[in-house]
Design brief:
By secondary structure, the protein is of the alpha/beta class. The protein contains 14 helices and ten strands.
């Protein structure tokens, strides 16, 4: 449980922002994909070429578990990847060193991380190139439309606050995740944390790629800045892909998900049952069921019952990741699970 304690001054300083920035959203999207992919025994010593050399410098910062780099603090909340990269390249050596002290690296990546922190230009350029590669694969296909959704959500939050006040706002914000007991906001959280804002206020920001959870972000090196609380912008697939997707997304998809799981994701574009998926991939029904469970937990597919079987269908996030087109809208004419009126 996260408990955020507000003073009167804090309540007066609640603000809203439409995004945590394209760099931080990219990192969230990458964490989601990586956390849902258990590593097989034969991959234990996979090298950069086996898992996507262009994304390796960024994935190496997340492989050991725990927290990753604070790309909101390092790259800012700009929605433009070029600006985010410029900000990253201008971060001071002392700031990189402070940031990396909080990250656990696998031994084989430690020397590279130290080179980044020490200001080696080649290693820093490798890191920003990896950020661009992950952004191009995971976020770019849907980012233009996603930004619109984020602005709409942030505006809705602001209107709710203006129209109903703090109490009404917190009661309606995320009732399944948040409970308001003035002057304390209780948030569903993986560990016990007590936060006292001490007059700094709070910035509330929607996110698309952080999953269905609330996050609390603060920069310990700049205690004058108001912390941020992120809330899910949607609870299903976050957005539909833009028409200008990434041409090399299908090729890179296997590097992040694994070939079989990437093939499973692509097979769900038109909807597929577990038995049919197993037949197409040449694997057992049990293995197909395991792959769909992981894809579903990562919000890349949905699963619905259809008679005596189930139908797996790609979500807009999954379509964006695979570089495909917009999937059939749930409950629409092309959805074979549609039964009766939508509620």
């Amino acid at each position: 449980m996260l408990r955020i304690h507000f003073t009167t001054a804090d309540l007066e300083r609640i603000r809203f922002a439409p995004t945590i920035g394209v760099a931080a959203e990219t990192c969230y999207a990458l964490e989601t994909v990586m956390s849902r992919r258990p590593r097989a025994s034969h991959e234990a010593h996979a090298g950069p070429r086996d898992r996507g050399a262009d994304t390796r410098p960024l994935t190496s910062l997340l492989e050991a578990g725990g927290i990753g780099p604070d790309l909101l603090a390092l790259a800012g909340d700009t929605p433009f990847i070029d600006h985010a990269v410029d900000n990253l390249l201008s971060v001071s050596d002392s700031r990189w060193q402070a940031e990396f002290r909080n990250i656990t690296f696998l031994p084989r990546h430690a020397s590279w991380a130290h080179a980044v922190a020490a200001g080696r230009l080649e290693e820093r350029q490798e890191l920003v190139a990896a950020l661009r590669a992950c952004h191009r694969l995971l976020v770019a296909p849907s980012w233009n439309r996603a930004r619109t959704e984020l602005v709409v959500m942030s505006t809705r939050h602001s209107d709710l606050m203006l129209g109903g006040g703090v109490d009404a706002f917190f009661r309606e914000l995320e009732p399944k995740l948040i409970r308001w007991r003035r002057p304390v906001l209780e948030v569903s959280y993986p560990r016990e944390v007590e936060v006292r804002l001490q007059g700094r206020g709070l910035v509330i920001t929607p996110t698309l790629f952080a999953g269905n959870a609330v996050s609390f972000l603060w920069d310990p090196l700049d205690i004058t800045q108001a912390p941020r609380m992120t809330v899910p912008a949607v609870h299903g697939a976050p957005t539909s892909p833009d028409s200008t997707g990434s041409d090399d997304a299908p090729a890179n998809l296997g590097a992040l998900l694994g070939r079989t799981r990437a093939a499973a994701l692509r097979a769900t574009v038109e909807g597929v049952s577990t038995t049919e998926l197993a037949r197409r991939l040449g694997i057992s029904v049990a293995a197909a069921s395991q792959h769909t469970a992981i894809l579903r937990n990562a919000r890349l597919i949905t699963t619905r019952r259809r008679g005596g079987s189930v139908l797996h269908l790609i979500t807009p996030l999954g379509a964006a990741l695979s570089g495909g087109g917009t999937p059939p809208a749930p409950g629409g004419r092309d959805d074979p699970t549609c039964r009766g009126p939508r509620v």
